[in-house]
Amino acid sequence: MLSPVAVAPTAVEAPSTAMGYVALIICILAWGSYATPMKAQKMRELSVDSMLSQCYIGVAIFVSSCFALFITDFVFTSLGIITAALWIMANLMALAVIQLIGLSVGAGVWAACSMLVSFLWGAIAFSAEKPIKSIPLALLALLLLFAGTAGVSIAGTELPVRYFKKLRGEPESDDSSAPSERSEPDPPAPVAGDNAVVALDAVEDPKTTEMPKVTPQRNYVLGIGLCGLLGLFNGSTLVPLHYVPPEASGINFVMSFAIGVLLVTPVIALVYFAFYKKSWPQLLPKEMTIYPLAAGFMWNIGNFTSIFATLALGQAIGFTLTQLALVPAAVWGILFFKEISGTPKIATFCVSTVVLLIGAFILGMYG
Question: CA-CA 20 to 30 A from 13: which of 39, 47, 237, 348?
Fold first, then answer.
């Protein structure tokens, strides 16, 4: 059985705690924003298959990772392939979850599961690297993070509107017989960690990401179960980083991960199109490739900074808090894509964001 090894990068000095938080903020912004190019009107009109988008994003990840070779030597570790496989599997599960229970509910559940899994890895398996300062306060922080995540996800549904109407004693409209029907698309999904991308879900066409009007109980239970499995994969994405030799850690791990993406993605895509879709996709016009490539470059910025945040702050804090990418993703949805509108929804989002930030602060202080 592998044992955790020192994970300080060799090409640069081990990141300080302050640099870890800077890297964390950059990661949250990058992962919360990377899907915006895919939501351009031209991309929406094309209705691009998510697996095809993933292939373009994978190419961008590999190409952008090659820039690391200008500042460090090439050191390969096969654990980068494992990380890539975890990331891609999480993305595919996200697609299934969306079809079963919708994006708003699914994104909130799998983000919470990812936080829990990542925290447990840090608190139990890697406690020797970064010990938890206070278990009770860290658990309180997790509960606040769960609550805030749920609130941000609910802000994309009609529940806040109905609740505000109920508080004011107003009757619900007649078209509310379908509890899960929404007049607006869901907010972008969080990019689950080294995934969240997770992020094939964030590029789905709004018409396909809405929860069905009637969700069978069996499908709902299956969807929640898949969220748990997705959270397991997503929350474990950077676990292999703790087992790599020091010379392959830090910035050097980026290239190993990129090679893994380049190797695993075509295999998954082949199986997806040959056996699931049973048809082959049409490649994007050359002038349209800029959108997924830009998304891939932006996502890889988050990937790079997530590695340094995890190294500096530990698994329990560093990677767990990358799930806060849900917040800037929703802000994009409010300000530019008008996916969340109306006082009840925006108020729910704002309150939930404050709860998330309080939870993040407590986890940062005592996690």
Answer: 237
The total number of residues shown for the chain amounts to 367
Write down the residue that tokens 């879709």 correspond to. 277
Question: How many Å apart are CA 236 and CA 227, to the nearest integer?
Answer: 14
Query: Which among 297, 233, 240 is positioned nearest to 96, based on CA atoms?
Result: 233
Residue with tokens 């190409």: 63
SS3 of 275-293: the string is: HHHCCCCCCCCHHHCHHHH
pTM across the whole model: 0.82
CB contact at 8 A, 245 and 126: no
DSSP output for 58-99 = HHHHHHHHGGGGGTS-----THHHHHHHHHHHHHHHHHHHHH
Residue 297 has pLDDT above 70, yes or no: yes
- Compute the distance between CA of residue 262 and CA of residue 330 in angstroms, rounded to an integer: 30
Whether the Cβ atoms of residue 5 and residue 245 lie closer than 8 Å to each other: yes
Question: What is the C-alpha separation between 348 and 187, in angstroms, rounded?
Answer: 13
Q: Which amino acid is at 119?
A: F
